[in-house]
Design a protein that fits this description.
The chain has helices at 8-19, 23-29; strands at 49-51, 57-58, 94-96. With 102 residues, the chain is an alpha+beta fold. A hairpin with a 5-residue loop joins strand 1 and strand 2. It starts with 7 loop residues before the first helix and ends in a 6-residue tail after the last strand.
Length: 102
């Protein structure tokens, strides 16, 4: 079956149906998780991240003084409880800035 011209969601649903995946579970997982898909291991250490709520930029070269994160700490190494220092948005609300590749 050709996937050319078909929306990604439709392709995923078709693939899920063929693999016996629960469509409701697939829909729940299709929610926006940021451009790194919530998988910090995909991020390069130098990736600069931007909060999609308030546009705060986490730069690993600078760290985060509010959370006492030292300079040189990659986004992927931030503690699980870390939130945006400006709006308290969860780390999953951050997107990779242009120029950084996950």
């Amino acid at each position: 079956m050709s996937t050319a011209g078909r929306p990604q969601g439709e392709i995923r649903r078709a693939q899920a149906e063929g693999n016996g995946v629960d469509r409701d579970d697939l829909a729940r997982r299709a929610t926006f998780e940021g451009s790194y898909l919530g998988d910090r291991s995909r991020l390069p250490d130098e990736a600069r991240m931007e909060c999609k709520i308030c546009w705060y930029v986490y730069d690993p070269a600078e760290g985060d003084a509010q959370w006492q994160v030292p300079p040189g700490t990659p986004f992927s190494a931030l503690p699980a409880h870390w939130t945006c220092p400006q709006c308290e948005g969860a780390a999953t609300q951050f997107m990779v800035l242009a120029g950084a590749r996950p």
